[in-house]
Design a protein that fits this description.
Blueprint (H helix, E strand, L loop, with lengths): L14 H9 L4 E3 L2 E3 L6 H23 L4 E4 L5 E4 L3 H17 L7 E3 L5 E3 L2 H31 L3 H5 L4
Antiparallel strand pairs: 1-2, 3-4, 5-6
Amino acid sequence: DSPVPKGVTAIKITDAEWQACLSTPGYTVANGALVAPAAPTSAQLLAQAQAAQIASLSSAYRSAIVTPVSYTSKGGVTKTYQADPASQTLLMQATQGYGIAGATPTGFYWKSEDNTEVPFTLADLQGLYMAMLSQGWTAFQHLQSLKSQVSAATSISAVQAITW
């Protein structure tokens, strides 16, 4: 496309070779000739499959830790509550703040996923927060177990069979 800069060694390649270089990384030049990359070994293919499966499992984990949580308040109301990061942070702050105060204020409520205002005590805030923490811990342990299985798998099909 342009003159070769001074001090740079270049070889002449065809348009087809140029397109091959663009579509398949790993081409090199040796002894003045273009050398195609070696086909990946079975170990490399297994490692690629393992990395892809761990990425998929990690994505499933990130979804699992924000799945809405069911909780029954001390008043006997069972509802589902959002567990996304913003909701968890707000719950943590409320639990800590009212923990310092020693109680929730009169008339205090927490909104369920369906926007029901559920009367909540400090014990309810703590209980809901513990339910979310428990969900996260369970999901984390599950992820670690699956990652160990993926690492121990000896074939691509075995790796791909390990799902959330």
